[in-house]
Design brief:
The complex is a heterodimer of chains A (about 300) and B (about 230).
Chain A lengths: L1 H23 L25 H8 L9 H4 L1 H9 L5 H54 L2 H29 L1 H55 L5 H4 L1 H15 L2 H11 L3 H12 L6 H17 L1
Helix pairs in contact in A: 7-9, 7-10, 7-12
Chain B lengths: L1 H52 L3 H83 L1 H10 L7 H23 L6 H13 L5 H15 L8
Classes of the chains: A mainly alpha (about 300), B mainly alpha (about 230).
Chain lengths: ~300, ~230
């Protein structure tokens, strides 16, 4: 018993000495790094031993681990209360140091793993994006788009044909009625197109005719001069006009005018219409007729 | 003892610093990873946008036309050929059945259009010939002036003679122009005649078929080049 008391006295002395040295020594105060506060909740930077946890349970004594080394109040309290001995504190300090060291090592290892896995992940994503970009580039080539569209159309055409057949058979009256109305509506534009279609050819022929007219008129002057001092017969207006008529009639042939009309390239719409009227309906026109009926369906669909 | 404890404290402080440094490193890793992935996606999106912007639509059109000619048109042609015997007979029958109701309206419209065409063609001929004569006279104005001078002081008044000659020549040219384009100017009139023939009395199927083709030419005008 006395030995125990003696031992406790020794411990108390040692503790006091340590506390005094802690209080008096100019050791660098242990401060809490500012980013210690961002520690993960899942994985605390340090795990306090149960003794410290008991102290932390009191809200007033909530301290960061570093406070243990800096707060003199703690020491005063320890002085008041018997509390842990210096050896226990030593042990706790050692335990804390070990825990911190283990935590540091664990975090360091975790960071190494994170660097490796992040690098690997970024490389994989980059590889995937390069691959996807290449695939898209190939897919966006006009040839590829054309192939894709053609493929879709190839599959769709037979189905569309079936639908059109049904529409044409069931809606024959509608289609014919619409066609008739369309003809009536289109007639004024067709008339204008016919007039416009002849413009170039008529201009070419008119130019030729005008040139011949001027030549014929001027030729009258030559004939007057050829008659010398007795131009009297030609001076009669009727004679002049008669002579002009003769010259004009001889100036140009119908064939040359027709050839000119054709060579100019105009009047193709009119000629096509005339040929069509002369030819009438032929079996080879069936497809054209079918397409006309189909255009009526397309027009109805557009509306 | 005190030194030992101070040493331990220092070690603990050192561990805390390392811990803090590792935490910072961890945060940096997270930031770099996030930024890296974001940058990759940004580059990817820009690449895709660039591909859209630089898409060669003209080449696509050419390729589409080529593909359509090579593979689509044969299918379409085949389908159309298959459709013709199925759908044309009912459509022809419907057109014939509707013609008694429709043809009088068509004739009425065509009569109006023939009249308007006649007016338009008259105006067009006058305008074109006047312009051509004016140009031709202008081109040989000196010779024309000499001719007018030679006629001066004669029994007939020079201005009147010259004008009469030009008028006579213009009439001839106009008649020639109308003659040359007589057929072309008669397209609508011939169409009206055809419609009138079919509208009067019992139209034959053949006449109606021919008329149908002419009407299709009105709705889908063709040129000789196949336009």
């Amino acid at each position: 018993m006395s030995e125990q008391n003696l031992g406790s006295d020794v411990h108390e002395e040692e503790e006091e000495a340590v506390l005094q040295s802690v209080a008096s020594e100019n050791t660098e105060p242990l401060t809490v790094p500012p980013d210690l506060g961002v520690l993960d909740e899942e994985e605390p930077a340090f795990v306090a031993p149960p003794e410290m946890m008991e102290e932390e349970e009191e809200p007033e004594e909530e301290e960061s681990p570093a406070d243990i080394f800096t707060h003199p109040e703690g020491l005063e309290e320890e002085e008041e209360d018997p509390g842990p001995t210096a050896a226990e504190l030593e042990k706790e300090l050692q335990g804390l140091s070990q825990v911190l060291e283990a935590q540091v090592e664990r975090l360091r290892a975790k960071n190494r793993r994170a660097i490796l896995s992040s690098s690997l992940f970024i490389i994989l994503v980059a590889i995937y994006m390069v691959w996807a970009g290449g695939a898209l580039k190939t897919a966006f080539r006009p040839e590829a788009v054309a192939d894709a569209a053609t493929g879709v159309a190839e599959k769709a055409i037979p189905q569309a044909a079936e639908s059109l057949e049904l529409m044409l058979e069931d809606g024959a009256y509608d289609v014919v009625d619409r066609f008739g109305e369309r003809v009536l509506v289109t007639l004024p534009a067709y008339r204008e197109a016919l007039v416009e279609d002849l413009e170039a050819a008529k201009k070419a022929v008119a130019d030729l005719l005008a040139a011949r007219v001027v030549e014929a008129v001027l030729a009258l002057e030559s004939s007057q001069q050829a008659n010398g001092g007795d131009p009297a017969p030609d001076r009669n207006l009727d004679n002049l006009l008669l002579k002009l008529d003769q010259r004009l009639a001889a100036s140009v042939s119908d064939e040359s005018l027709m050839q000119l009309k054709t060579s100019v390239g105009g009047a193709s719409l009119s000629r096509s219409a005339l040929e069509q009227m002369a030819l009438g309906r032929q079996p080879r026109h069936d497809r054209e007729i079918l397409l006309s009926w189909l255009s009526m369906i397309a027009e109805r669909t557009d509306r | 003892m005190a030194d030992d404890r101070a040493d331990k404290e220092l070690r603990s402080a050192d561990h805390l610093k390392h811990l803090s440094a590792e935490r910072s490193r961890q945060n940096r890793i997270r930031t770099v990873l996030g930024s890296g992935i974001f940058a990759l996606f940004l580059i990817f999106a820009m690449t895709i946008a660039q591909q859209f912007r630089s898409f060669d639509s003209a080449r696509l059109e050419v390729k589409m036309n080529a593909r359509a000619s090579a593979s689509l048109w044969p299918i379409v042609s085949e389908e159309l050929d298959a459709l013709i015997p199925k759908v044309l007979p009912p459509l022809d029958a419907t057109f014939r059945a509707e013609s008694p109701r429709y043809l009088p309206r068509l004739v009425q419209h065509l009569e109006v259009e023939v009249e308007r065409y006649s007016e338009d063609a008259e105006e067009q001929g006058d305008r074109i010939l006047d312009a051509a004569l004016e140009q031709a006279l202008e081109a040989r104005s000196e010779e024309i002036a000499a001719l007018q001078g030679s006629l001066d002081g004669e029994e007939t008044r020079s201005d009147g003679s010259f004008d009469a000659m030009v008028e006579r020549a213009q009439g001839w040219a106009r008649a020639e122009l109308d003659h040359v384009f007589g057929d072309e100017d008669s397209v609508l009139d011939r169409l009206r005649e055809k419609a009138l023939q079919s509208a009067n009395g019992e139209p034959s199927a053949e006449n109606l078929d021919d008329l149908l083709m002419s009407l299709i030419a009105v709705v889908n005008p063709k040129t000789e080049q196949g336009g």
